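Comment thread on ticket #2218

A.B. wrote:
> Attaching the input chain for the structure job we discussed in standup.
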Amino acid sequence: MIEIDRVPTGVPGFDELCEGGLVRNRTYLLSGTSGTGKTNFAFQFLHSGATQYDEPGIFIATEERPSYLRENLSRFGWDMQSLEDEGKLAIIDACSTKIGIPSQERYVDVRPFDMRALLEQVITIQDEIGAKRAVIDSSTSIGFNLQDPARIRIELLKLSTTLEILGLTSLMTCEIVDDDLYSRFGVENFVTDGTILLYNKREDNTRVRSMEIFKMRGSDHKKGIYPYEITSEGIVIYPREEVY
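C.D. wrote:
> Ran it. Output below, let me know if you need it in another format.
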């Protein structure tokens, strides 16, 4: 039996659900409604790679300006700027140009939604910092620009396949409007190797956060729905408890 090379996520409790972590050099969809912590989960994956496993990462920010991300994620004790200065993290600002404002970032996507230009920049950054992990936050922004499901599928397939060829284990966030959906445009989960769903469902007078691994190609995984919390140090999943 061939041993599968695993990438530990650094999200407490998650790796227990999938035999030790994500399959290396694969791309995974991270779907959830508003308030589920998709960006938190995705950056926690990059932060742990940079600080615990000597795996630098690339964060492609299509929805939020990097300055806002640095400020927002600092509440978990994550110093993004220090990681950038040390060459362990690179952020591509794919938001500012899209909304027509100037950017002072080192890496800027000057041609929004030009997949070839974006991938060329990813290749350049990987050469500079030796990146092993990547996050695209989010695929939904790319999809809204393309609109046509066939084009969305082709462009996201191009993105995910190129990241895999480059040797990057990646998370691609996806905004959904209904917990019964797996993706926004109905194609994202077909061009990735796995789908992780985050829920924030209302139960009586409170909301309960939970998650499940819907798909993980080439690997076994637990099939239940498990609770998680967003703590002061990031997301913590409870793999020995189930939500019914």
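A.B. wrote:
> Thanks. Noting for the ticket: Helices lie at 38-52, 66-73, 80-85, 96-99, 115-129, 139-146, 149-165.
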